[in-house]
């Protein structure tokens, strides 16, 4: 049995509008480090904690958390599409254990995932179908959100259950850090957008392209300094990474949801996936960060981080 962790930001803009070559080279080097770490871990199961951006989880029924026993990726923003090789027995076992631990996780036999789940699998494994996975959805976008303490408890419960599987498990987190890309919000959107947030599954290719172009245009304006989207907050990002590295995750329980938005933007809630993977790893004892990378990348509207960690003394 072993647990290891990799957490990384995702961005729809990667490969579309690139930052300066030296920035891309630094990101690639960090991803190379992470790939080497993952190759060394040689996981036979990846538990991937990911948000969704109104593709698989909409306001017709929005759970806080959901474990998928079967899942399909839609292939947005150039990420891989198709069925994920979900380990159904492991998914059921994790869901049962998490429920037994008192965390009311939803369970899906038809989960739809988007770039939030597919991009880190593409980046680390070269595709979404190379290693058995269990996808764990964490709502990071659709307010109202529960407190981050619940995410920590979810992570701890998954970590204990994953350790009991007697497998080499990689805990993979995808999202954030500080960023506030143009993701619609129910309380502020015009009626036609509200309707798609509630029941807009399976948009036409044209509708999908329009949504994606909106994000690409926003990234160009952001990089050009002509956007009114909120600035990235590297200071906040580094403070957050420091807390995760220190292992005392309960400190984060006092960070209110409002403070995330005010200091680091609405989509900084995606760091819930980082909290979950660190809590999962920490559930089995103290851990050590093996590598960490951070850079604020306006071209991608992203405080971009990559962290690897494993149980101390492994
Ligand atoms: O238009 C929509 O409904 C969603 C737009 C979208 O998918 C944006 C995604 C941005 C990220 O995933 C990110 O920067 O983390
Ligand atoms: Fe995202």
From TrEMBL:
Known EC number: 1.13.11.16
InterPro entries, alphabetized: DHPP/DHXA_dioxygenase (IPR023789), Xdiol_dOase_suB (IPR004183)
Keywords: Aromatic hydrocarbons catabolism, Dioxygenase, Iron, Oxidoreductase
GO MF annotation terms: 3-carboxyethylcatechol 2,3-dioxygenase activity; ferrous iron binding
Protein family: Belongs to the LigB/MhpB extradiol dioxygenase family.
Enzyme class name: oxidoreductase
Source organism of this protein record: Blastococcus tunisiensis
Catalysed reaction, written as an equation: 3-(2,3-dihydroxyphenyl)propanoate + O2 = (2Z,4E)-2-hydroxy-6-oxonona-2,4-dienedioate + H(+); (2E)-3-(2,3-dihydroxyphenyl)prop-2-enoate + O2 = (2Z,4E,7E)-2-hydroxy-6-oxonona-2,4,7-trienedioate + H(+)
One GO BP: 3-phenylpropionate catabolic process
Function in brief: Catalyzes the non-heme iron(II)-dependent oxidative cleavage of 2,3-dihydroxyphenylpropionic acid and 2,3-dihydroxicinnamic acid into 2-hydroxy-6-ketononadienedioate and 2-hydroxy-6-ketononatrienedioate, respectively.
Residues annotated as the enzyme's active site: 115 (proton donor), 179 (proton acceptor)
Pathway of action: Aromatic compound metabolism; 3-phenylpropanoate degradation
Keyword Iron tagged: yes
Source superkingdom: Bacteria
Ranges of residues in domain Extradiol ring-cleavage dioxygenase class III enzyme subunit B: 7-305
Self-association and partners: Homotetramer.
Protein name, per record: 2,3-dihydroxyphenylpropionate/2,3-dihydroxicinnamic acid 1,2-dioxygenase
Pfam families xrefs: LigB
Cofactor needs: Fe(2+)
